[in-house]
Design a protein that fits this description.
The chain is α+β, with helices and mostly antiparallel strands. It has twelve helices and 18 strands. Strand 14 and strand 15 form a beta hairpin.
């Protein structure tokens, strides 16, 4: 949990075996309380005029300690008779923004030019950085300066669709997964067995109301298959939307006087990967180095042009693009089954997942129809 969890109230979701369905919960002083009687879905809490104030005033039956639920969530043999944690959002659309950091923009161009070939990518990277440079942090996407750079790159023959969304007027915002398909902390995340070049993407995810107002945040892992997307950008959904490929959590922190959008802009999101082969990787994604402001991204997501009646969660992108060699020189990084991925920052806690093949992760079977039916059966809807 966040380092100052004792002075704030956090929101999450659990699977409640006694109800045979999910329940919104609040976490206060390490204890978990079921608030489904007042708010059947997390979406209902998020749509309130002041979600933080609402959450601070909520109470309900104690489910147990957060530690106990977390332990049962990650247990190799889960006790199906006791509750466990889920992803902290439910009816919100699962959205993600891409190419929002200059360094990841460069890596996307390299992926495209290498067509998924890891060895070729290393050569392209060294030549491209010499021509373009890696520090485009001060360049405002869509500005006159960005347009002039675009003209120069086109003339040099190195323009790319990734540079278009990186410095052009329109951001890349895509659907990461279907409603209710996200996984939470302490459970596996999935990469396709056929992929041999992939990586985690440690990100901050904003909680956005249907009105477009940003009301809170959580952590996300926008798992990416670099070889698949590198073959063609039209394979984005194949690269991004697979079983257990969207992880969110552990909990939602709503904005208040202690944590707000300005806090998000200054966050440093840490990443660590520990492999069963002894491999270790550490990195940090600095939100201050985003080329597009979070509020501007939300403005492109929701507005007169597009509406989300149940709100959305928007992953903001990452500056993490791993090039550290794992096995042989020049082959860069890719996941292996068993990798433990930790994404964290003091204000939002830590999201922890172990990597498996998507085909071997627990299948997603509980959809919107199941949720509505369960809530009706419980007299909550």
């Amino acid at each position: 949990m966040p380092t100052d969890a004792e002075s704030t109230v956090l929101v999450g979701r659990i699977w409640d075996p006694s109800a045979d369905g999910p329940s919104p919960v609040i976490v206060r002083n390490g204890d978990v309380f079921d608030v489904s009687a007042q708010y059947p879905t997390v979406r209902d809490i998020c749509e309130q005029p002041d979600p933080a104030a609402v959450v601070h005033g909520l109470d309900g039956p104690r489910v147990g300690s957060f530690e106990a639920l977390l332990a049962n969530t990650g247990a190799s043999s889960r006790d199906q008779g006791r509750p466990w944690l889920l992803a902290p959002v439910d009816l919100q659309a699962l959205k993600a923004a891409g190419v929002t950091f200059p360094v990841s923009m460069i890596e996307r161009v390299i992926e495209e030019r290498a067509r998924g070939d890891v060895a070729l990518a290393a050569d392209i990277r060294s030549r491209m950085l010499a021509d373009v440079g890696a520090d485009l942090h001060d360049l405002l996407p869509g500005s006159e300066e960005a347009a002039r750079l675009k003209d120069l790159l086109v003339a040099a023959g190195i323009w790319s669709q990734y540079l278009e969304v990186g410095i052009g007027p329109d951001a890349e915002i895509f659907t990461k997964g279907q409603v209710l398909s996200a996984v939470g902390t302490a459970v596996p995340v999935g990469v396709l067995a056929a992929s041999d070049w992939n990586n985690p993407e440690p990100e901050v995810a904003l909680i956005v109301q249907s009105s477009g107002r940003i009301v809170g945040g959580t952590l996300g892992n926008d798992v990416n298959l670099r070889d698949v997307e590198g073959r063609s950008a039209l394979l984005l959904t194949r690269a991004k939307d697979n079983n257990a490929s969207c992880a969110l959590g552990p909990l939602i922190r709503f904005f208040d006087t202690r944590f707000d959008l300005e806090s998000v802009r200054g966050l440093d999101v840490s990443l660590s990967i520990d492999g069963e082969d002894g491999f270790r990787l550490d990195a940090v994604s600095e939100m201050a180095r985003m080329s597009r402001d979070p509020e501007a991204l939300v403005g492109q997501l929701i507005g007169p042009h597009h509406h989300y009646p149940d709100g959305a969660v928007l992953m903001l992108g990452t500056m993490f693009a791993p090039i550290q060699d794992r096995d042989r020189p020049g082959e860069g990084f890719t996941h292996k089954v068993g990798d433990v991925v930790r994404i964290g920052c003091p204000a939002l806690g830590t999201l922890v997942n172990r990597v498996r093949h998507a085909e071997d992760c627990e299948p997603w079977t509980f959809g919107v129809r199941d949720l509505m039916g369960n809530l009706v059966k419980r007299g909550l809807l």
